[in-house]
Amino acid sequence: MVQLRFRADLAIVVVCVGLYIGSAAQVRFPVGGTALSFAVTTISSPALAIGNAIGRTWQVFLSGQRNLRSTLGELRRLRLESAELHRANQLLSAEVTALRQGSRLLAAYPSLADQAVLARVIARDLPRTQTLRLDRGSRDGIHIDGPVLAEGGLVGRVDRVLEHSCRVQLLTHPAAAAAAAVEGVQQEALLVGGDQPHLTGLSPYTQVPFETSVLSTGSEGIYPPGLLFGTTLEARNDGLFTIVPVRLAANAAEVTAVLVLAPAARGAP
């Protein structure tokens, strides 16, 4: 059987410490409480303070997270509203621009207004097909080959018609062609489309003034006579013909409103 042995000196120390603690537990301070309770309070107060601080910090952190989520949600909502307002402002600006161009068009060509339909450009495909799409169609009296006139001058003709929209083949289209004449030049020429529209069919070495108006003649049966295509650039001789590059008067990239005229056959009395 194992017997426990205590050292006499250690036993005395343990007994003394126990008696001291017991005595301290009986000593009372004037402010109330014993020395033992005061010692326990003194030792435990920093731990309680740290615990309370950690708790408060955690509560602040959780509250901050909730506020951050709420703030981020509000920020997303404001961004969406700002984007919607920006789009609405762009549409409104486009509408105002189209109305202004339409008003100037009607004022510039009063004799054509009775037989024309005012339309707005709703789409462009300049690099690929050299076309515009308008917001008027067969229900509005639009027909194939209807000449399309912008504020600066002619832009092309209608080549496709749907019920509520139509497509315009621009004068820059490779297949575009129109009868034209240069002011001061007796001969009629053919305006041919492409990246650089030009006049052909003029006799070799024809003297063509620089920056002179190029007007429609109506010989092809589409465009009314006397409407502006553009102005001449520097002419050159090319075999059997004089070639004259033409700077078009209407920039299709900037046109927002046009007049669609009745085709020549339907417009004739």
**Total of helices:** 4
CATH architecture group name of the largest domain: Beta Barrel
Number of domains: 2
How much of the residues is beta strand, in percent? 25-35%
Structure description:
The chain is an alpha+beta fold and 269 residues long. It has 2 domains: 34-108; 114-269, Thrombin, subunit H (Beta Barrel), CATH 2.40.10. It is 38% helix and 26% strand. It contains 4 helices and 13 strands. The chain has helices spanning 8-26, 35-108, 110-113, 264-267, and strands at residues 116-125, 131-134, 147-149, 154-161, 166-170, 177-182, 188-192, 198-202, 213-216, 228-232, 236-238, 241-248, 257-261. Strands 1-2-5-4-3-13 form a 6-stranded antiparallel barrel. The chain has a 6-stranded antiparallel barrel with strand order 6-7-8-12-10-9. Strand 3 (147-149) and strand 4 form a beta hairpin. The longest helix has 74 residues, at 35-108. The mean pLDDT is 82.
Give a brief outline of the structure:
This protein has helices spanning 8-26, 35-108, 110-113, 264-267; strands at residues 116-125, 131-134, 147-149, 154-161, 166-170, 177-182, 188-192, 198-202, 213-216, 228-232, 236-238, 241-248, 257-261. With 269 residues, it is of the alpha+beta class.
